[in-house]
Amino acid sequence: MAGTSAPPSYRGHLITGAGMTACRGRTGCRFSFTCTGKRNAVKEREEWATAVKLAKQVIAGEVWLDDLGYATHYHATYVHPSWRHELIKITRIGGHIFYKMKPGTVQLALLSEGL
Question: Which range in 2-11, 67-76, 90-99, 104-113 is most confidently predicted, on average pLDDT?
Fold first, then answer.
């Protein structure tokens, strides 16, 4: 993944606030790792540090991930959410599929939020 600076119009809107709660809806857990019953403790400290550093750089607009930069949604390959048909598939990495919104959708969402 090549790194370049994030487009200025998108900086500040990189966090969706999806939440990391162990939500159990009709389809199960929102994120599978929240429903394992295991303690949320970092085991691979070096990898965790790398992930935190990269996340901070992406949020600050210092790094742009060309492969995933416009991704707004993702899901594991073993689930099939209905919303996937409303988006554009970007790529599959490992056990996850990443999507972006159709042209104009982001602008409409930002306008509806008053941004």
Answer: 90-99
- The per-residue DSSP string of 29-65 comes to ESSGGGGS------S-HHHHHHHHHHHHHHHTTS-EE
- Which three-class secondary structure state does DSSP give residue 76? strand
User: How far apart are alpha carbons 90 and 112 in whole angstroms?
Assistant: 25
Q: What angle do CA 16, 73, 41 make, to 5 degrees?
A: 65
Amino acid symbol at 26: R
Q: Is the pLDDT of residue 39 over 60?
A: yes
pLDDT tops 90 at residue 3: no
Instruction: Give the pair of three-digit tokens for residue 56.
Output: 């901070």
